[in-house]
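hi! just following up on the protien thing from before. the input was this:
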Amino acid sequence: MNKDNKINKFKQFFSKNESSQNYANTKIENNELLNYYTSIVNNHPDFIFIFSNNAEIITSDNKRVSLFFGKTINKLKDFQTVLTEPTYKILSDVFKQTLSGKSEKCMIETKNKNNQKSTLALTLIPITIDHVVEGVFLSAIDVSDQIILTEQLESHKNHLKHAQQIAKIGSWEYLIENDHLFCSENFYRIFGLEPDLYMHMGDPYKLVHPEDYEHAYQKINEAIKFGKNYTNQFRIYHGKTNEIKYIKVHAEVLFENQKPHKIIGVIRDVTQQIELENQIIEQNENYKKIFNNLSSGIWVRDASDASFVFASKGLENIVDIPISKLYDNPDTWYEMVHPNSVSQLDSAIKKVEAGESLQTIYQFISGSGKIKWLLEEVVPEININGEISYIFGLVTDITQEMELKAQLDYLANYETLTGLPNQKSLFEQLDHMCKYDESFAVLCLDLDRFNIINDSLGYSIGDLALKFIADNFGKLMPHTGYLARLSSNDFIMIYKNYNDKNNVYQLAQNIINKISEPFIIQGYEINISTSIGITFFPEEGKEKNILLENAHTALYQAKKEGRNTYQLSSHLADISSYKKYVLDRDMRKAIINEEFELYFQPQVEPKHGKLCGAEALIRWNHKEWVMISPGEFIPLAEENHMINTITDWVIEKVCQYLYEWKEKGLPLKPIAINIPPIRFMKTDLFDFVKAQIEKYQIDPQFLEFEITENTIVNSEIGTYSIIQRLKEMGIRIAIDDFGTGYASLASIRQFKPDTIKIDKLFIQNINYKNEIDNAIISATLHLGKLLGLNIVAEGVEELEQLNFLKQIDCDIIQGYLFSKPVKIDQFEKILVIGYLKPQKSNTKQIIEERRKFFRLEFPFPIPGNLSIVELNGKPVQLGKTPILIRNISLGGLNVLSNLKLPINMDMKFHISFTLLDEEFELNGELRWINEEFAEVYSYGVPIKVNQLTENRLASIINKLSTIIRNNEKIPNTDFIYEDAHTYFRRNKF
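and the predicted 3d structure came back as:
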């Protein structure tokens, strides 16, 4: 086979343009060799070239080569374009040597396509076919990074070496067990020793000065024996020059197996420090050169006449005048101080004259007329006689820093949209004001439903509206006020130095009226309202957080009252607020003091009155307000998070009664307990109920838990799971107040309750032939029957209601017609009897007033105000609560109120009203109470008046009697023509 045939055959091995079918059809004797080299070319991570013996490239990874060099390499000579001539000659010579059959390696430098220098490590391997070198296998590795790292390592070694030489420091390491000392080159240089790999610790110590030897050797011995780190200084005789050198040693001991193993340390030649002391004068001149090149100004004054001894050139750029003027007239500097800072600088000068060093910041008018801020540090030099000889100063222009600080202070204390103080400033203001006893009011203002503006018109319009409203707040605020933006649409206004709290209330009303006026923003008419919460310092809080919390609570109440109004946080605002405050205060003690009591309202089968069960209803026997219904304190319990504790008390108490009835041999009936939605949010409800059942050994079938429709609608998976587990345990589930919520049929189908209780709202309208309510009741009953549920009708008070419910086959009746809620002893008697009869008449008790004076009945009630003035013999100052007065005599009044107030208590009341344009202020107490209708109570109020007031009142009563008898219009008297319930709801505080 001739040479050309061999080359063709060689090319066939590595040609990338041949298909796999051509490879298969080519008759090549050594397929294994072909596969081997092909695999290398395709998979090798380095640059791979396969050359023929005439230096042509048979195959290579052209894509990678092109990416690196930016061009294609087809033959060895093509490397001339990417290599220098000497480098290419090296490559060519190595290639020739490889053709002789010997593998070679070399390093070459080249540049990649980005003209970056790279170093390649080349390996050339001959390819032999039939004992003849037919080609060369060349691999190239980019080792640039390794070269750089190697150079850096060597450089770092050299840097360390030179650093030790410059600093005259030597490092050393001593292996204690082997007594082997390893030292840096500079260590040997400092001691004047020849480098020795096998040096012992005692070798350098031979050069220690005899007077220092014992102390020096003691230190190293303590380190070896006890592991003590040390610092020491001693003298040595230099090993080569025999000069005395001062050496300072720092050593640290390293431990191994809890004993000293190694000592590492450094030595320093401190001889030069002594020599430096002789060069202080020369250094002072150098310092002057440095000072003159600093941007800050440095000066020295003679204390005797304040003349400048030295002033650096840096002062020229600060004061904008030649330094020579300061030398000529030392007062020039003082004359350029800004008038606002003169007194401050005079004070500073006096302190310096007294020998104090200080730092002061003041304003300065430079020679160019610019106002600058200067930071000056002044240090007086006091001589041995205690007198000031010189004064040194350092001056820095901090104008930019002060301007930046002013900007940052503004951003930190004011919000950018309205320009009002932000939360940080507000808190600081309140903290400051709370330190003093001066009264002030805090108004928390919130824009009602402001998010609607942002959502409908966009945030840009919303921001403009906020700015407009904030400007109006500022205009309405008294000149002694303070206004801040607390958050998005919440503002805080502080009103101090007011004459009367009525001024605060009037301010709040003015704000509400003004903000409710429509205004235009970019063509959009904006209608917004404001709710306000008000609290007072110091009577309602003496700390910032308490005041803000009280104001926010009052704001929340204003929101609940329908918005666009203001509310007070004080429990002294009116009787209702005071009562709420007292109940909230005493609730946590009620369980401990055993003030809670359970009443039971029987549930009966309507046809025969057979007892089916009862609902447990909690009452609170308060020491001041007597019997409190759950409608008054349960909402408070939900607010102050006591509701769960109270609910658990009821559950346990019912279980206890069931146990006692069983022990007495009384027939047991299911007892219904109201479970609020929030109790299901605590996962321990099931475990608690189970624990009570086990503790009192009762059958779960005698417990029925009443839940509201909202519990069903808003229930989460956890709530549903708890209810299911309770049902599986045997406890019955009832849907309370059915028809007033939004429970869907799907929800009822999912929960599968045992009982549905129709709300009394529907039952009460049966008397009035209300076809809609009748239809709802009938449909609910029919639905319950189809679903296999028991139906309970609540609030049954009339025989007509009972007859209707019988006709539609209602399962269970609950209401005053059969029984009011009764105490435990009375209910036990009902358990024994086992049935109840409906009362023949449910007419409300008529309270007969036996007055010795003529009683004037008004054609319509007149408005008045009621307040508590004395409680348990102690005076009380409360705000006024609205009432309605139905009749009046010289001995008393009959009034209506939406508050349930205690009777026969040591509680005195104040009543105010106006008749025929005359104002009356009367004191009295409550004698009797009668519930007129839902949440409206009638009270008899005996009064005590002096002779003057009695004469005035008698005259008015006589005039009114005559006017009414003659059927004339009553002048100068307000009458309330709407029903009492609507009036109180509209005027509720």
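The two ends are 118 Å apart (CA to CA).
Residues 13-30, 842-849 have pLDDT under 50 and may be disordered.
cheers
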